[in-house]
Amino acid sequence: MKVLWGIGSSIATVILFGWTLVELYGMSSVFAEMIGDTESSSWSAEANMLPLFGLILLGVVMLVVHRWQKRNNHLGYKKSTWLPTEIEESDEREKDVTAKACRASYISLFYSFPVIAALMVLYPFVAEMIPYYPVLIILLLPISQILVYAITWQVKYKA
Q1: How far apart are CA 135 and CA 139, in angstroms?
Q2: What is the DSSP track for 36-87?
Q3: Distance between CA 154 and CA 61 in Å, rounded?
C-alpha cells in the first residue's frame, strides 16, 4: 500500500507541477509581449493559480501522510523526512526488490532520454498549437522513471 501511495502521489505531483509550469509559461509569454510592446499602456497579466494551490495542497497532504506512515520509524528525522515512502524497506527481500527497481529506473534513463530528445525535434511543427510543448516533453522523463520503478517493483515483489 505504501508503494502504491508513493507512486500515485509522485505521478500526481509531476502532473500538477507540469500544469503549474504550463500556466506560468503562459503568463510569462504574456508578460514578455507586454514588455516588447512599447506603445501599449496596459500592464496586466493573469494566470490560473489553481494548479499551484493544488500542488501546495497535495504537498501538505503528502507531508502529513508521510510523517504519519513513518511515526514509529527507527530512522533518524532527516532520513525519514527525505526518503520517499516507496523506497522504505523493512527486510532484506524488500531491499533487494527496491535495489532492482532503482536499477531498472536508472537504466530507463538511457532509453527514455533519446526518445525525449527525438520528440523535441517536433517542437517547430507544434509550436503554434502547443507553445508549452517542451515543458510537457521534459516531464515525461520523471514519469517514465516512476512508472518503470513501479512496474519493476511489482514484478520483482510478486516473483
Answers
A1: 6
A2: H-SS----------HHHHHHHHHHHHHHHHHHHHTTT-SS-HHHHHHS-GGG
A3: 25
Can you state the angle between helices 2-36 and 140-158, rounded to 10 degrees? Answer: 170
Give domain limits for the chain.
Answer: 1-88, 89-159
Q: What is the pLDDT along the chain (159 residues), one digit of tens a residue?
A: 567 777 888 898 899 999 999 999 988 888 888 887 777 767 777 778 899 999 899 888 887 877 777 666 666 666 666 666 667 677 888 889 989 999 999 999 999 999 999 999 999 999 999 999 999 999 999 999 999 999 998 898 887
How is residue 126 written as a grid cell?
507544434
DSSP assignment of 80-132 equals HHHS-GGG--SSHHHHHHHHHHHHHHHHHHHHHHHHHHHHHTTHHHHTTT-TT
